[in-house]
Amino acid sequence: MHPAPFDLVLLPTWLVPVEPADIVLEGYGLAIRDGRIAAVAPRGELLTRAARAVRELPGMLLAPGLVNAHGHAAMSLFRGLADDMPLMTWLNEHIWPAEKRWVDPDFVRDGTALAIAEQVMGGVTCFSDMYFYPEVAAEVVEHAGVRAQLCIPVLDFPVPGAVDVHAAIAQALPLFDRLVGHPHIRVAFGPHAPYTVGDENLLRVRELAERCGAPIQMHVHETASEVEDALRATGERPLARLARLGLLGGHFQAVHMTQVDDTDLALLQRSGTHVLHCPESNLKLASGFCPVERLWQAGVNVAIGTDGAASNNDLDLLGETRTAALLAKAVAGSATALDAHRALRMATLNGARALGMATEIGSLEEGKQADLIAVDLSGLAQQPLYDPVSQLIYATGRERVRHVWVGGRMLLEEGRLQIQDEAELLARTAAWRERLVG
């Protein structure tokens, strides 16, 4: 009996599977069947097999889709609204008041759609979102065809869409029920930060996360002042408090972690907690420097996120990865810190691991979902080309992403969105600008 034909065979110049690590395959291709990777094999071997379509990708590098492990998607509509301010001034005097005034289901719908379009055009196939009205974001994600982790925001004070924690949780539980087993969406809890969520509500989150089998994502040790304020008030570092309350573990995603002492490192190691590094937001808000190389060498899984467009100001994960690689060298005082291959791994497989999706995405392995990007390395700015992964990380911008597939479905072809309407997105975004300015 002959095997079923492939749906699509892709034949790039270079193929970077990420797993195994540090490998670049030339003369290889990838076959897709039923939305999954059916084979990674020499091109001659693949061409002997029946396929409904074969696509040559000359001058292109095929890699796993990028995973943006932390962000606030709908905040794309606040891009550039309040720049060049310290974190707490930015939050208290500008962002939180703007959210109270403007954020509603329509805001979240349009802002999330804009964020998804920007990310797809930059090679992001999966992202984590911590924002209000997650049920609306879920609708947008389903329509756009991407993958996402949606974090239910939990704070001790009223937020858009929820008057208190009980209301936020009451609205979240039906979303969990609806999306159980969803092929593209995973729901998580998103307690905002140690300084905005008290012990009682953190314990409630822990209990619900355990009951639902859900991850927890939280801003932790974002600034030195956050840690210093906690020590003055309680004599306990925020990460130690989270450990005492039983929140840390392989399900916990600690965002930022710019402040890491020996006790913090030991807690991260023992618990298997993931760290989500957001270098450009940390730089822009002068929040501090995550010691990526030290964490990596200690065995802590470090993924990468853009944070929101209000504090970055873009959702360019490829550019974020370049910044992370360069910054890691300066922080570690070593030019060998976070080399190009590890940087790409941080933006793909490490992100998938942090979000609990590593069995499905993050590397080009047979049986995994066909979430792929093809990046054109034939441009003048990429020449001469000696090492395609180094060229991808250090010399290539997101505008060179030509094709994007999620589950074998093409979302970007020749740099053009296939599911979303770019002109419509621009018009809706312009209308929001007029409202906010007015």
Could you explain the architecture of this structure?
There is one protein chain. Strands 1, 2, 3, 4, 5, 14, 15, 16 and 17 form a 9-stranded mixed beta sheet that branches. By secondary structure, this protein is of the alpha/beta class. Helix 3 (about 105-120) crosses helix 16 (about 420-435). The protein has 16 helices and 17 strands.
Keywords:
438 residues; nine-stranded mixed beta sheet; alpha/beta; single chain; four-stranded parallel beta sheet; 39% helix; 16 helices
State the end-to-end CA separation: 68 Å
Count of β-strands: 17
Which of globular, elongated, flat, extended, rod-shaped describes the shape? globular
Give the uncertain stretches in residue-range form.
none
Strand % is: 15-25%
The major pleated sheet works out as:
9 strands, mixed
Report helical residue fraction: 25-40%
Mean pLDDT: 96
Q: How many alpha or pi helices?
A: 16
Class derived from helix and strand content = alpha/beta
> Radius of gyration in whole Å, from Cα?
21 Å
